[in-house]
Amino acid sequence: MLHDQIEQALNQQIALEGGSSHAYLAMAVWAETNGFDGVASFLYVHAEEERQHMLKLMRFVNERGGVACVPALESTQDSFEGLEHVFQLILEHETRVTASINDVVDQCLKLKDYTTHNFMQWYVAEQIEEEALARKLLDKLALAGGDKGALYLFDRDITNLDSHE
Ligand code: OFO
Fold it and tell me: Which of 97, 119, 124, 129 to mutate to test the pocket of ligand 1 (most atoms within 8 A of CB)?
């Protein structure tokens, strides 16, 4: 049986993952309607992955005797200054997600919930990859420096990137 505090922390994490999915969907729409089809495909996949992260948590909460809360959809930012702005926001967002995951892990240790602690390790590892990828893409964009040809190549090449690279 899940401790109430852990159930609450996991439900907050569920809301955050759902919010991530929604935020990346809005970014995907912006990219698709601003001529960045490659970035749009990447972000649609990313949005779907975040939804899977949310579902994985929901199934775990229910399996452990808790009740997963289906998060309400909140309005999210849907206009951006450019690709660098989008990926800067992604990095900031993922950094917040990491902090939240670390907080859940910390609560698990304090309450000696080693099962949830073990389950959360998948998220800990995932965040290392997600933050690294966001940094890598931001570095590439900094190199492109707003050059149209370089941005074209960035948009073309991002579709060959595995989001777990
Ligand atoms: Fe990108 O965050 Fe999920 O876990």
Answer: 97
What range defines the domain where residue 42 resides?
Answer: 4-71+79-160
Q: What is the DSSP letter of 73?
A: P
Q: How far is CA 20 from CA 23, 74, 144, in A?
A: 5, 11, 26
Q: Are 80 and 92 in contact (CB under 8 A)?
A: no
Tokens 């907080």 map to which residue?
103
Distance, CA of 152 to CA of 85 (rounded, Å): 16
- With contact defined as beta carbons under 8 Å apart, do 100 and 45 qualify? no
pLDDT band, very low/low/confident/very high, at 160 (cuts 50, 70, 90): confident
In the reported structure, the alpha carbon of residue 144 is separated from the centroid of ligand 1 by a whole-number distance in angstroms of 27
Asked if 68 contacts 62 with a C-beta cutoff of 8 angstroms, the reply is: yes
Rounded average pLDDT over 110-119: 98
User: How many folded domains does the chain comprise?
Assistant: 1
Per-residue model confidence (pLDDT) at position 162: 61
CATH number at residue 17: 1.20.1260.10
